[in-house]
Amino acid sequence: MKITIVGTGYVGLVTGACFSDAGHEVMCVDNNEKKIEMLLKGEMPIYEPGLDEIVERNVKAGRLKFSTSIAEGTKFAKVIFIAVGTPPGVGGEANLTYVEQVGREVAENMTDYHLLVEKSTVPAKTSEHLKRTMRKYLKADVDFDVASNPEFLREGTAIVDATHPDRIVVGVESARAGDLLEEIYKPILAAGGGQFLRMNVTSAELTKHASNSFLALKISYINAVARICEMAGADVEQVAKGMGLDPRIGPRFLHAGVGYGGSCFPKDVDAFVRLSDAVGYDFKLLKEVQQINKSQREFVMQKIKRELWVVQDKKIAIFGLAFKPETDDVREAPSLYFVPALQEMKAKVVAWDPIAEGKFREALPDVPLETSQDLYECATGADLVLVLTEWDAVKNIDLAKLKSVMTTPVMIDGRNAFDPATVRAAGFTYHSVGRA
Length: 436
Ligand code: UGA
Known about the structure:
By secondary structure, the chain is of the alpha/beta class. It has helices spanning 10-21, 33-40, 51-60, 70-76, 97-109, 126-137, 158-163, 175-190, 201-232, 236-244, 265-279, 284-308, 334-344, 357-363, 375-379, 392-395, 399-405, 420-425; strands spanning 2-6, 25-29, 64-67, 79-82, 114-118, 144-148, 167-171, 195-199, 315-319, 348-352, 370-371, 384-387, 410-413, 429-431.
């Protein structure tokens, strides 16, 4: 089938690449000419393991094309996925300017039936606005549908998530739209990809909000338990293991640490709180989830202060700038809090990250940051190492060598990436989260 995807960010590019790999003919559209130029040259605008090979394979096979024109994309396929950014705008609400723009341009260029599918995470009821926009700008008397097909991709494992999803949720208002989407997902379902769920559009939109918020809640829950563990003399890793073996709870997303970040959880929890407020429900539980997440960073900061006593003039080596391993994304990453806060206290901060340095500098252009491409060089002369991202290179570090280059061997592990006994046996003063 022919499919157009508008937006070549994580969601759009991964979805487009995987649809083409499943045998569909795909056109990925983006108004950012630089991005399209890069893609045409075979360069990836984002870091996602395995994506470059899939893109290359399908471009060569003629199944994957790129364009900067929505008009061309509208002509190319009758099913158009909207995967443009919905960043937080003024006051924190999702900025839907790009979504509206796609709806408008598609409507202006449509000469026959089209199905417009929301793939970006949007506030519930966006489909209603999109339909109104389409009707306003349609030039021909043609039919259309708007559907919701939320994505559940995780950065770093997006390809596996896209090709082997647990579930495919589609919100539709007509059998025609539902059948078209089922046809698109047929090869992925045939390859063993989860259940196909049809529901109404608002339910599909809400499924996304409710899923991400629940995962964020799980993380904040275990982080709160971690705080209690420290005070009561327990080990949160053991508690999480004991809890997670109950299949009703499950072991995943029970990893305590410095709190969740990324482009999704903070934004989506916030959006769900706002939506709930708007429909008249005060979602206090989720507000507490946000509060716990914020205070988790401060909790780790207290450990640094307690250990160093005076932070000024101390060298702090930060291991990891990305919000999680296997991505260069720093949106809402703990590093965005710790680097400026420690510099404000006049610490000498040096950071190491294999790929996220560029994105960090883009995010905080006014924060001058010294970096090193080598973990040991980064930690040379340091009074304290702070682990913010559990990269494999960090977890596999030679502790004896690390200790030998540091001024004082102190490690604050914001990700519980190490076994406390091993690090202490190597001669470190070691603090993690929730392990008394
Ligand atoms: C998240 C969801 O997991 C995806 O299902 C969803 O599709 C995506 O958002 C989205 O809405 O686009 P992602 O933001 O890529 O995916 O990252 P996660 O792997 O979920 O991690 C989010 C944050 O939680 C990271 O900062 C991670 O370090 C943290 N985390 C995760 C914990 O602190 N503890 C855990 O046990 C798990």
